[in-house]
Design brief:
6-stranded mixed sheet, two-stranded antiparallel ribbon, alpha/beta, about 210 residues, about 20% strand, 7 helices
């Protein structure tokens, strides 16, 4: 089984990602979504965790062979960066959502030297905003950001455009389209739901996909 399909099957199996097109979830932004995603659940499923961390290690070796340091996103990417750093024998740190208001007031935790080649480890990419903020913090610290390695991406147009504009490369273990196909194959959703899910991915603000025949 291909890595992309294996990870999709894993995430569905532990309900880290699951679809509910008939009863959409509501995001904080108010957007209705047919999908729920919580990749933190991979940490409490040892077999799946092994697939994810080994997969991230392979993706980083394949796409960013010159990497010197891993930096996790706060908070979801921290544990993954630590485990992958252990597997690969690399130093790791993480980037806070904002600078501390005490002590040394760091935003970057862990040792990072100017010019070091960094890969950012992220769990999920939707619109790309949060991971781009992390990349910008690292660039301001004069690190050389090679790119991002993530577990799952929605592949939303807005996210892809933002990453391209910021000059940020991302490689994900699996994506929304693959998980939708595997979900239909495994019986989590009906095959006819795939079209509705892809319509959501293409334009989350357009809720016409919610109608069964929309």
């Amino acid at each position: 089984m291909e890595r992309k399909e294996q990870i999709a099957k894993d995430l569905l199996g532990i309900r880290a990602v699951f679809f509910r097109p008939e009863e959409p979830f509501t995001w904080a932004s108010g957007i209705k979504s047919p999908v729920y995603c919580d990749n933190r659940l991979t940490l409490t499923a040892p077999e799946v965790r092994g697939h994810v961390e080994n997969g991230l290690s392979e993706v980083i070796r394949e796409n960013y062979p010159d990497v010197e340091v891993l930096m996790g996103t706060s908070t979801a990417g921290i544990a993954h960066a630590a485990i992958v750093g252990h597997i690969m024998g690399l130093p790791m740190g993480y980037v806070r959502g904002g600078a501390k208001d005490h002590g040394r007031k760091n935003q970057i935790e862990g040792r990072l030297e100017k010019g070091q080649k960094v890969v950012v480890v992220e769990d999920l990419i939707s619109t790309g905003g949060s991971v781009i903020e992390v990349v910008n913090v690292l660039r301001e610290a004069e690190a050389q950001v090679l790119g991002v390695a993530s577990i799952f991406t929605y592949g939303m147009r807005k996210g892809l455009e933002r990453l391209a504009e910021a000059g940020v490369k991302n490689v994900s273990l699996t994506d929304f389209d693959c998980i939708a196909e595997v979900a239909a194959k495994e019986g989590y959703i009906r095959p006819e739901d795939i079209r509705r899910l892809i319509a959501f991915r293409d334009n989350p603000a357009d809720e016409s996909w919610i109608k069964k025949n929309g």
